[in-house]
Amino acid sequence: MTKGILFAFLAFAFFAWGDALVKAIGHGLDPFEVTFFAYILPLLLSPVFMTRGDRVGDLLRWNRPWLMTVRLVFVAASTPLSVMSFRSLPFAEAFAMIFLMPSLVTLLSIVVLKEPVRWRRRLAIGAAFIGVLIVARPGFRELLPGHFAALGCAFSSAVVVITGRMIGHSEKRFTLIGTVFLSTAVASGLLMIPGFEWPTREQWILTVGFATTTFAAQALFTLAAAFAPADRVGAAQYSQILWALAIGAIFFDEWPDLLSLVGIVIVVGSGLFIFAREHAQHPDPIPDLIPEPVPGEEPEISSESLPEPRPEPGFRPPARP
């Protein structure tokens, strides 16, 4: 388990440094262009995630096409939105708003999956939204497009989590990973056409660095999921806020004020509590564990009876992801 947790912390460190490279690129390139070039390399290298019996054609062979389509639409939206937020907001502030994702997952669980949510998690959701308001301070500071992009990224990531629960183990792991790279590259490639500009040498270096860290993070995340339970792997994502504070201060001269730090602590603390409660309700399962049918009755398999998948590489949580 220790090895898995170490891989998880390394994966989220790579994610954080990749986001720092995005911020360094700045507004010189269209966000869809940055996303496209960043996901071409992982797409070309995605066969390394194949196991025995997997085929490249599995990328387009889905058992639950409607759920997969919804999932991939929101996966493809999450990375460009995160790029937009990191380019226009202080690093730690963008992370704090994206970390609203666990609260949105719980809200969607109530609406979509009809799950009961007790008062503790309801209070944590409210606290998370208060924390975001403290960070953004609408009415006291100008709301930038990056704020809305960060919230959009959090919502998109939450939808990916919910659809992942509904998909369960009905799709191959390589299908879930590879289609993320494929859908993100295709969607961003089409959307970048109107604003396409050939990158400069410096932009190429930063973009290739972003692509490399993205693939390395996904590979480390896959190893982490193989060696450690989902709750330990997922909780490691909150180490990104520490990287964000350090990178923002050292490289971008971003020093959050006291109120921003208070808001960040509230959002992260609420997210950790919700994350722990979510995994208490959806424990990491034994693979392919499906309830035994009662003799003489048709087995009833619903999205709720399917086990929850382990954390998905290919989708950065959040995030990216």
Q: How does this model look, in words?
A:
This protein is mainly α. It has one domain. Helix content is 66%, strand content 0%. Helix 2 (31-45) packs across helix 9. The radius of gyration is 19 Å and the shape is globular. The two termini are 23 Å apart.
How are the SSEs ordered, and which strands pair?
Elements: H1 2-25, H2 31-45, H3 65-88, H4 91-98, H5 101-111, H6 119-136, H7 145-167, H8 173-191, H9 201-227, H10 230-235, H11 240-252, H12 258-281
Number of strands: 0
Structural class: mainly alpha
Mean pLDDT: 83
Oligomer: single chain
User: End-to-end distance, in Å?
Assistant: 23 Å
Low-pLDDT residue intervals, each spanning 5 or more residues: 284-321
Strand content: under 5%
Provide the succession of SSEs: HHHHHHHHHHHH
Portion of residues within helices? 55-70%
Shape: globular
Largest sheet: none
Instruction: Provide the domain count.
Output: 1
Query: Total helix count?
Result: 12
Radius of gyration: 19 Å
